[in-house]
Every structure is written in C-alpha cells, then in structure tokens.
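Quick question, first post here. What does this chain look like in 3D?
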Amino acid sequence: MQVSVQLLGGFVVVVNGAPITADRWTRRGAAALVKLLALAPDGRLHRDRVVDALWPELTLDVALPRLHKAAHYARGVLGDRDAVVLKGEVIALFPGARLEVDATSFEAAAEEALAAEPPVLESCAEALKLAGELLPDDLSEPWLDEPRERLRLRVLRLLRCAGRWEELLALDPANEEAHVELLRESVVAGDRTNGLRRYARMERVLHTELGLAPGPEAVVLRDRLLAVDPGPQPSPVAAAPRAAGRTHLVERDAELAQLGAACDLAVDEGRGVVVLVSGEAGAGKSALVRAFLDGLSPAIRVAVGGCDDLLAPRSLGPFRDMAENDAELAAALSGDRPAALLRVFSERPSVVVVEDIHWADDATLDAIRFLARRFPGIPAVLVLTFRDTGIDAGHPLRQLLGSLTGPSVKRVLLPPLSVEAVRRLGAVAPGEAVEIHRVTQGNPFFVTEVLAGGGTGVPHTVLDAVLARLGTLSVPARTLVERLSVIPTRAERWLAENLADHGVLLEVERSGIVTGTDATVAFRHELARQAIESALTAGERIQANKEVVDVLLGRPEVEPSRLVHHAERSGRIDVILEYGPEAAREAARLGAHRQAVGVLDVVLRHRELLAPRLAAELLTRRAYSLYVVNRFAAGLESAEAAVRAAAEAGDPVLRAEALLVLARVAMFARGPMRGRQAADQAVEVLEPLGDDARLAAALIEVGRAHSNLATVSIVAEPSERAEAAAERALQLGQRLGRPELEAQASCYLGDARLARGDPRGEADLQLAISLAGADSRTETLVRCYVNAAGGAYRSGRLDDAEKYVAGGLRAAADGEFFAGQYRLRLTTAAVQGSRGNWDRAIAELRDLLDTPGEPGAMAALARSLLARLLARRGDPEAGEVLATALADEAFADDSFVVTRLAVAQAELGWLDGSLGSLTDEVRRALALATGHRSVHAELAAYLRRAGIDVPAPIDAPGPWAPTLAGDWEKAADAWGRLGERYEQAVVLATAPDRTARARGLRQLRELGAVSTILAV
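> Answer (accepted):
Ran it through. Tokens below.
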C-alpha cells in the first residue's frame, strides 16, 4: 500500500492513488489526528504527546476516549482498519504502508541543499519548488506553531541561498541582508529610481520593526545610487582587459586563478569578495599577492598595506600605508574611519590587500571586521594574508576568522612545493632536488634561499642558508644588515641610509638580501630578518636598537610606538617614559586596547620614576583597556592600584576617574556589589566638585551596578537607587548636550522602569539605542542592546528580546566587545530556557562556557542556569557544573552572585531530595539574599518546595508573590504572561486542583523535566 499526505497548501490524503479531500473530514478531531501523525517522524507519536497537542485542557483519563473516537472516525474516512493503529502507548499512521508526506520531503530536500558548504544555488531552488504554507486552514491550532515556524525558517534559508530576496522580504520584512542585496542589484543595473525606492522601503521597515536605521553598507549603496546619472552608462572597468602578468610563480596557477575569479566577480557583477590567503611562514603569500596585483587592470584601485611585528603595532598601520599616496584614503582615516574607508573603496572597483594580519593591532582587526562584513555589497576584493600556524584559540585573529563565513568568503591555502617544483626552480638534478625538498619540506622561501646560496651541500636550516649569503658581504654591509634586522617588516630608506656610511646600502641591495623601493627597504622575507636578528649576541641587539632609536629621534614625524619598541629593546628608559604614554593614548584612541596595555606595561615597569599623578592616570588607562579586552582580573588589580595612586597624589578628579573604571571592571571581576561600592564612592568624590560630566558618568555606573545586568532570571530586580541615579544622569547629559551620556543613562533608566512595571522603560531603551548609534565606541551601543534585550525578556516580550539580541550581536561584530557579546548570548540562552527550548539553551550555554576568554561573573551565571536545566532533566552532570561555579572564590564576597548560586543549589537539592533541613549554609544564603527581592523570593520558593518552611519576603516581585502566597491560579497566569513555561508547569503540577495538576505534569513531560515530575 502507498499513502501520500499533502500538508503544504492544503490537506489531502491519497491512498493507492485515490484522493481523500478535506471535505470528507466531517470530524475535526479525526482530521487533526491524521495531520498530527503525518508531521511526526515515521508517522508515530506517543499517546501522551497526542493528547497534550489535541486536548491540552483535559486530563488523560478524560482525553483517552476522545482519542479512540478520533482514531475510529479517521479509519472510517481513510477506508482502512489499519490506517490509525493504537498499540501500547504509541499511535501510528498506516504503519504497514509506504508513507510519503510532502512537508517531510521538503524538509529533507532543504537539509540536503543547505548541508553543502557553500550551499548550491540550483539545489536550493529545487528544494523551494517543494515548499508551501503548512495547513493554511488551521492557523489557530497551537500545536502547529512549532512545525510551521521550523518550515518557515527552512524557506528563509533557501531563499537566501537562491538569492530570491523579494520573496524573502515577503516572509521577513526586516531582513537587512535581503534589503542590501536588492540595493546592490539596483547599483549593478544602474537603476537609480528603483534602488532609491528600495532604500526608502528598507529605512521605513527597519525603523518600524526594530527602531533602527540602515547600516553603513546600505548607506554606501544609496550614495552610489545618488551618484548614478539617470541615463545608462557603460562600465569602463568591466571592459578593461586585465594587464599581462609580469610575475611567474611555480605551482601557484590554481591559487592565482582563485584570486582572479574573485576580482572578476567584483568588477563584472559588483559582488565583493573577501579572500583569506593562508600558509606557513615562507609559503609565498606575499609573492602570490604581488603576482595577482601585477595582472590587474590599471582602472582598478589597488591599496596595499601590511601589519608590523612591533611591541605595539601601529594602530591602523596597514591603512596608513595605503593612505601615504592616496589623498582620499588619508581623508577617510582622519574622519569616521571604517565607514569612510568603505565609501572610498566603493567608489570604483578596488582591490584592498592587508598582509600579515596575525600581527594586526586591535584597531586594524576592527576595521577589517567592519569592511569584511560589507565588502559583498560593493565592487571590491579584500585580500587578507596570515600565517595559519602559531595562532592559539584565544588569539583575536581566531575570533575574526571565525566570523568570516558565507559564499562571499574564499579561502586560499598555500601548500608546500613539490620535488618537481624545486627541480624546475633551481634547474638542478633530480637527486639534488629530492635532497633540497627533504631539508626544506618544500617551503618556498627556504628553497629559494638554498638555491640562491650556491656552494656545495644543502644547509640544514633557514638560518644556515641566510647566514651563508650574509658571509659574502663586506664588514660595513654586514653591519648594516644586522642593524636593519632589528626593524620589523620594513624600514624607510632614509633610516637605512642613516644607519651606515654612504654607498653601503647599495651593496646590500645588490646582494639580494634586502629589496627596496623609492621609499623603503625590506628583507626578502621576514624569516630572513628574524634569522639574522636571532644570530646577534645580546649586546649586538641592544646596540643595533640604540642606533635605530638615535636616528628615529631626529625625525619628529615618527610614531611614538616605534620609538617605544626600539627603546624597550635597548634600555632607553628616558625614551620609554617620554614617548610611551602618548603611544598608549593613541593606540587606545583608535581602539587598539591590547597594544595600549602592552605599551603601558613597559612604561609602568619604571613606576618608581613616575610622579604619583601620572602613575594614577596611566594605571587608570591601563585598567580601562584591560576591561575592554575582557582581562577583568588584571583590570581590577590595575584599577585598584590607580585608586591608591590617585589618593596618594591628592587629586580627587583622578581618583574619581579611577573609581569609575574600577566600578566597570569590578562588576565582572568580583560581581555587582563591588561595582556598586566603587560607583557610590565616585559619586561621593564628585558631588562637591561641580564636574557635571564626570558626575553623570558616575551616576550611570551606579545605575549599571544596581541594574539587572547580573541576573539571568526572568523576574526583574526592582531598584529605586538605579532609577534615581539614571534619571539624574539623564538630566545632566541633556543639560550638557552629551548624547553619549544620554544614551547610557536612558539605557539604565529604561531597565529600572521596566523592572517595576513602568512601560515607559521600553521607550527609554529605544532612545538609548538611537542615541548610542552616534557614538563611535562599539561598547556604548552594545551595552544599550544588552539592556534592551534583558528588559524585553523580563517583561515577557521574548520575541523582542531575541530581536534586540540579534541587533546587539550585529553591532558587536563591527568591533571587539567580548563582554557584551557574552551577555547577549546569555540572554539568548535564558530566553530559550523560558520558552522550553532546552536543547537550544543547553547548547548555547555549553558553547559559551567553552569560549576562550575571561567572562568573569557571567560564567558563574551561565553555569547556574546550565546546572538547573540539566538537573531538571535528570542529568548527573548538573552537580559537577554547579560545583565548578561554587568553587570560584572570586565571587565569594558578592551577595548577589552567591545567592544566585544558592538558588541553583536549592533547586538541585529539591530535585534529588538531598535538601531536607535548614542548614547553616541555607541560613547564610537567606541572610545574604535580604535586599535582593527577586533572588530572595526565588530562594524561598525553592526551599519551600523542598519542604523547608521559611518565611516569604513581604515584597516579592512579579509572579513570585502569588507563587509564595499559594495563589496557584494567579501564579500560573502570571508565569504564562511572562512566557516562563517551567515555573508555570511547577505551579500547576503542585496545585490542589486535579485538572491543573494533570496539565502541569503534561507540560513538564513536554519539557523533558523528568526529575521535576518525580519531585512534584
């Protein structure tokens, strides 16, 4: 027997070729049963699942007769006694037949099409032919919500893969990527009118749906449309032939072809590409890029820059290289840097090359991150080269590379050369080629050094090969090479000429050890420079760096970071102290906070030579940079030292600045209570000074420390202190005309208002996001999204919470702010936990806890939530997860974190039966919870569930009040309005009403809360 069921677009069952149409189903229950079974794997479902879906308001004993009656009528309509079979506790649809369901076939085709990396457009298009709306006549059936949403998401992914953007927008009007792709189509077609109409639609929808403005990529595309003449114009670049290549490489034709194809796609179709070129040191990455650039049309803008292996690499160094001979790029770097760079590169087809990004500073990585996300929307290629070895999991580059995915990202991995390539390069005998290949492992640079060295025998290391060539030079030339070897990457020609007598540089260049341009000289490869530098004695290295410092000091335009690099390596403490603070300030200003910390570490090694006031300032700046890069423990130590140094200097403003940074970093390093203490101290110091801007900043930190940032509970913690501080900070910010202060104050004011049920809080949070968009610091905007997402979650608006999370993660993708990303993802896990999507919540929490970095208090919150979800399912790992959080002594003195973990302990003790009496530990937790209304109420509720009679707090917030009062009907309704399915189920399952208990138990079964079922 062959049976097919149509669920997409309508309901039809076909048995052996005979259709049974919807009008035959006169009994709603019979049709619903068949539809439900058809959606189930293999057409089978447990009896309880069927009852819960079709008759959720009934107890099992009342619902079972209805189930049997529905099955009886279904068999009658289908004309087969085995059409619906109830065996044991399982119900099956046509168990002995070949069952085909169109919804299942579509899902299988979609999964297969999307599983390819990247997905194949044709396969996605074929899968879309099978799509349709799931049972459109049953839109009010709640059991269809989950499969309907699942199929909708599949369709959205397929439409994205197939590039059917208008259809995608019909299903998801606020999909920013679809709007941008349609804008790009208009740009490529030169369709100014339609493109501007599309931009206006995007602007309207994003504002209405999300309260957001179009991103920089969309603005760039709009500007290109505004520049389009109304009449069609031919593209001069598309018609321009590629120049004949001048560089010949061995065994790199395929890789060159990949780069050429990427360029063709950008030039001909306006679809930008990001190309990641990776390989070990000496693999030929730079040579490949040079060969590619040699073959480009003169009509294409080419911008090339490289990163430096310095103590503190030049902030935005590669882009500064590009700007040296390009006035437009120079102007872009002086303004709104990443967005301005994007505008310049979008004006005409461009190839942008950033080499050696494994040495990139934070500001450069942020710029690359920003550009890489938006290059697919402009006619440009972004080529990034890096070493794929020696980069650990915590390296910032790993985070960047992990974010670069999708069809617009191409990866080019350079393999070693073959024996045949070695033979061709050196025109050597086959046996000698084998030996050279064995020693060099096919590394192109090592091979060329061996071949260039000549002589007999094969050197065993790169150092041997390089030193063999160095030995052929005169003594003055060798001395110059040794001095140049302490300068990473490249040296200006004037610098090289000043490091030796006249004419010596010419001999060095002729030897081939270094190569030069009109402006710079460099070793043929960084490996050669490192090999020569490593051969110097300690004294020779120090002297070479001193010589470099002396020359650099005579050039006022030299960046302070370069001076500090060589001064640190030559013991020039005077230079470090004079130029280090400025180098660190510039790095931090541009967002290169890791590099700022590195420079300040060098300066502060000589703290005894610093005046107390300068020491306090530098320690404060170091603490803030450590906070931004999520090194909270080190940041706390630095901030506390800054507070002491400022007190020693007797400078109240400096002390307040240090306390403000301490408040921020302590929030994560030690918990909110330490943050509150520092913020309150800052306000106390600033109140009599009349410095309204700093006072507003201090009040914002008070609001932050008293906010709900440190809770993962769906019940908010009301705080009059947070609301009053944020409101006053907002007034000060408005009076000063400081939108960044207004944004942050509105952020915490909105959180506080929502916590006490004031709906004005939502408008406050939307205003905060709008104002923060004008702040160049990623941190400000992400913090606003964090609070908006949390506020929406704790108000029961779970869909809005997820939208804010998505917006925050998009904003965070443009610049590193690990703490904000972590907190947003923690909110995602909490939302999924409340919805009952525990698999997703657990997976998110595990991924967070496995993520490299220093999340501080957020890790304890993540572990507490994970332990509770696992315990509800009866997973023995729950205790181990919670034990790890409890063992972290960093938060032992923070009552908020301690009591949060105590709630988790109480729930685990209730579920496994181990919590049976009021122990000293429980008494301590209750005492610490006093003043934390939400946590206190939750702890009391779980202790009562475990049979420990404790008094309820008189001011329990939200649904905890009726829960603790025993008003199960009000409590269940309140939990339901918030969207918290588990707490609602527990209240129902422990209610005195039989029907309510049955409903609660069914809900717990749906959640998979097997341990909770036993406990209730």
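The chain is about 65% helix and 5% strand.
The mean pLDDT is 87.
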